[in-house]
């Protein structure tokens, strides 16, 4: 078997090869988190019951995988075998009831495994055996009622084990499971059914945090040193536990002990154990009156405790705090927490008498109705933090915090403060954070914050403020965060933000502003980076050209989402001019009827833009609208009515990585544009009515073979025009015909033919015509006659001549030859009436032993004569039939013969006869010799060789002395000069 390291390297190599070939970059049930470099995947709300099916196409490079809120019931063996690089696996909130023992095999790198919120009743002892690098294991909110003693034995690196909200009863068995986990730091057994801490093994020395709250413990049942290494111990909500159960227990290392809602007495607990007082959380220990608190303080001082860093007294049902309640306590140097009690009055904070080192006071969730001034009390001048959250404070009077001049954090949020005196915060010059959010304040004044010169964060969110008056924040030169969101602000006075020289974040969302005052916000141009104007009443009705942000060159984040009641509707021209540094712009849910081509021209550094639900659905994005957004990385144009994804609109977004096109009206997508967006890695097209037609065949192939671009949930996209069909597998066989290619090919061929046909007509017309009729004759009646014997010929000769030479033929040729018993075929006399002329010519040529061509100037110009001589030439050369006789009525120049290329071959092979003209010295003798030679040629056999014919001609010449005397008129039988041209189309 191969070494695991080698096996992993091989698997990675195979994966890389698959990517280079054509690995599908879409997943059936999961998505890859954008910009995670193929490492983080989420599979949410999957309907498959088999988890193997859900994750089988996840890349082997995955390091973080989440499968949640699915119908998964079983985890089969080897389910994640192809994901050896996983370091975090989250399988929470499913319906998993069974996990195979080999389910997590090959996950040697896994460090975090979350199986919370499932239906697991038990686990096989070997289910975690391959996870020897696991550091965190979460098994909370299942149905586990027991654990095998070897279940966690291989998890030697485990640091956190969460078993909360199960049905575990046997604590000793649990301890046996974890006793060898030398790296375990935290064990959470809260919300189980443990009744005792009886044990037969020791806890690991590394275990520092043990949570046992909300069980059914009625006694501890453990030895005195069992918890000696634990630092954080939570035994709250075990109502039957009493102080006696802790007697002699070694808790010297405890730094936080929580005993809320038990039957334990704080004083007895300190008597029975060696726990430090400042380590105890006194919440829920029935310290409900000043007498009990005073007793506790005296006990602490009796133990010679000089000071403690904190005292937590939550949920003790405290109603009244007297002036000297904590005067007998050791000095509290850090936090006093009185939250979630029933305190109605603080009596001018006199209950803190003597606690002059206190830094933080928390009184949230009480019943405070009034906080009066304590102008002359200086007993708590060192107070640093004060929190009144979740109270019922109705009024804050003037100089309320005069005796706490060193306060740095004041939290009065989540109360019902309706009025705050102009001077309520006077004297708090060291205050850094002030929270007044979630109250009922209606006004803040120009002197409300005049002493808060060190303030950096001011939260006034969710009050009833309607107007920000001039110079309200004038003294807050160090303020960096101002939150005015969730009020009823309709007006900002011209000098409302004067003095805010360091303001970086301004939140005005969910107010009632109707316009953006450029002069007002312009005063913050040198420092402001975040401006939130969501859900106001900003609206424009005319196309004007102005920008309220003209001077805000440092603004990085601008939110203008969801203006009420119907959105911005109309953006003025150049509305965003001046925002040259802006990186994020939010315009969702504004129903804008149109964007100008110059709308985003100044946003050259923009990286994130969301226009989701921002279009009224009747306007298109104009070409060039994003032309300057070359740094844009993320764009959301969801539900904008976009019908086409064109290069003119989106072509310049070369830096774009993530694109959301959900819920648009696009039926197709041009993949050439996707190829141009070279940095795009994620495109979401869910709920688009994509057509399953040929126009999307290329897109289908592209989505299933892209190596860089992810189409989330591609396999769930249905076809709008074919209900029940899916886009990823619709039939594309009928789309293989590339109409454009075929149209181009046909038009190209047609053009070439139109160009060549005239040329071929001029050059090769007669050759084609000749070949055509020869082919016809092959199957015709005349073709079979070629095989017949010569005695079957109807004529001795077919005379081919031009009508211009008809006189010579009728007066000279016809009497001399037919008078010597030769049968001649003449077209005007012997051609069959009603028959095609070409068929007549073919029949005449093949029905005669010889063909006499009467050659003259007129003959050479005749098309029909040309066809006749070519048919005769065919018999001469291809069939080896000696059928052609040439009679020249007049001398012809070579330039006239050049068109008839076959004439040369004829003249090289055959004797030709020249009709003696009037130039001859003895015309009568020459004509007699001419007729004798012509008759002899007509009598010769078609199939005889040229040598035999030559010998016969020589014998005839010897017998005819007269011929010898008139030799100068005899036309030499030897071939003519090589320069003579021959007939050929």
In short:
By secondary structure, the chain is an alpha/beta fold. It is built from 21 helices and 39 strands.
> Rg, please?
54 Å
Low-confidence stretches: 9-24, 376-382, 944-949, 959-985
Distance between the termini: 81 Å
Question: How are strands sequenced across the largest beta sheet?
Answer: 15-16-17-18-20-22-23-25-27-28-29-30-31-32-33-34
Measured as a percent range, the helix fraction is 10-25%
| Helix-strand category | alpha/beta
Oligomer: single chain
Strand content: 5-15%
SS element count, helices: 21
Secondary structure tally: strands: 39
The dominant shape is elongated
- What is the averaged pLDDT score? 81
For the biggest sheet, the summary is:
16 strands, parallel
Layout: helices, strands, pairs:
Blueprint: H1 4-21, E1 31-32, E2 40-44, H2 51-55, E3 64-68, E4 74-75, E5 88-90, E6 98-99, E7 112-114, E8 136-138, E9 160-162, H3 171-178, E10 186-188, E11 209-211, E12 232-234, E13 256-258, H4 266-272, E14 280-281, H5 290-302, E15 307-312, E16 331-337, E17 360-362, E18 385-387, E19 395-396, E20 409-411, E21 419-420, E22 433-435, E23 457-459, E24 467-468, E25 481-483, E26 491-492, E27 505-507, H6 518-522, E28 530-532, E29 557-559, E30 584-586, E31 608-610, E32 634-636, H7 647-650, E33 658-660, H8 671-676, E34 682-684, H9 697-703, H10 739-779, H11 781-784, E35 795-800, H12 806-818, E36 824-825, H13 827-830, H14 837-846, E37 848-855, H15 857-861, H16 863-877, E38 884-888, H17 894-897, H18 902-909, E39 912-914, H19 923-939, H20 946-959, H21 961-965
Parallel strand pairs: 2-3, 3-5, 4-6, 5-7, 7-8, 8-9, 9-10, 10-11, 11-12, 12-13, 13-14, 15-16, 16-17, 17-18, 18-20, 19-21, 20-22, 22-23, 23-25, 24-26, 25-27, 27-28, 28-29, 29-30, 30-31, 31-32, 32-33, 33-34, 35-36, 35-37, 37-38, 38-39
Antiparallel strand pairs: 1-2
Helix pairs in contact: 10-16, 14-16
